[in-house]
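Troubleshooting: if your tokenizer reports a length mismatch, compare your output against this known-good record of 325 residues.
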Amino acid sequence: MPTLNLLQAVNDALRVVMEQDDRVVVFGEDVGRFGGVFRATQGLQERFGADRVFDTPLAEDGIVGVAVGMALNGLRPVAEIQFADFVYPAFDQLVNEAAKMRYRSGGQFSCPIVVRMPYGGGIRGGHYHSQSPEAYFIHTPGLKVVIPSNPYDAKGLLISAIRDNDPVIFMEPKRLYRAVRGDVPEGDYSVELGKAATVRSGSDVTLIAYGSMVHTVLEAADRMAQDEGLSCEVLDLRTLLPFDIEAVLTSARKTGRVVIVHEAPRTCGFGAELAATISEKALLHLQGPVLRVTGFDTPFPYTLENEYLPNYRRILPAVRKLMEY
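Known-good structure output:
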């Protein structure tokens, strides 16, 4: 079984579905001969030709608008937004067109597009190349939002997203592109959308995360186990919309303590929805309040990136606070 990094897994997923389905087309800024700014599409134009893998103008609203039109005419477009921070010009096309197509047509039309976008901090990209805008899309009925944390899931989730009949926002944690490696099966396989993964079982506290924060949380769990003998359960959401409510509640009821970690700003971040859901549906099982460790309510800083991003030093006090509650 090959060992791939997350970037290679994304590339392999695109190759697999394009070989099997000639309706799949890939396009975006510099994705053709150049292979994208991170090289996620490297080699695909040479393999499948410029009719199926092609460059677009620097116009995100046009990129997503073209994807919507393609989907309504029988194709399965995979559009790349070079950085998640650049998606805002396409917001209208995603929220008012793609997300509502099935509803407005009474189920006569679907809009099977995938919009890939590298998101988050960790590469010293500054405030225009490091944002985590997932909450904007989670608030939009009709979209699905997927964020992998490892190469195996990246390939399997992307294959599932491309085959899904509804629009999917596929957010890739760019700090992990070359930083994590793992065994990835050759050929075709899928990871079901809407299913979380328990990446570590535990009994004392549940740590919920997604994307790059899964690895941050695992580091915190290791330190808590080593230094304080605490058993932390780690839940990787993988899909944020729809999220796996049963997996979240099962773990919360099991441990009675929950800490949610994400790098997006705190106010109205996805952690707030998770905390509300747990409080509404598992309150009598809790030993303390649901706590959040998140980014701050500021623009993403360049020089203070490491202070902005959650790390184990910020997670450990939250866990200790819950254990002492």
